[in-house]
Amino acid sequence: MRPDGPALVGRQTEPAWEPELGAAMRSHGRAVHEESVLPLILDALAASQ
């Protein structure tokens, strides 16, 4: 979680691709957009196959 990430505002949804991320975002008050972590998501998907 980046401390300089965008503030978590508006409607909040649980990220389906990382179950623990929603709790971490709420705890830190920061948003994580899929586009900003796409390489990490793709690596995780590739490793799971």
Describe the fold and architecture.
This protein is 37% helix and 0% strand. With 49 residues, it is mainly alpha-helical. It has one domain (1-49). It is globular. The model has no long low-confidence stretch (mean pLDDT 86).
Main β-sheet: number of strands, strand sense, barrel status?
none
Provide the number of structural domains. 1
What's the shape?
Answer: globular
Number of strands: 0
Total helices: the number is: 2
Q: Stretches where pLDDT falls below 50 for ≥5 residues? A: none
Q: Which structural class do the helices and strands define? A: mainly alpha
Give me a quick take on this structure.
By secondary structure, the protein is mainly alpha-helical.
Lay out the secondary structure.
Layout: H1 21-28, H2 38-47
Top keywords for this entry?
49 residues, mainly alpha, 2 helices
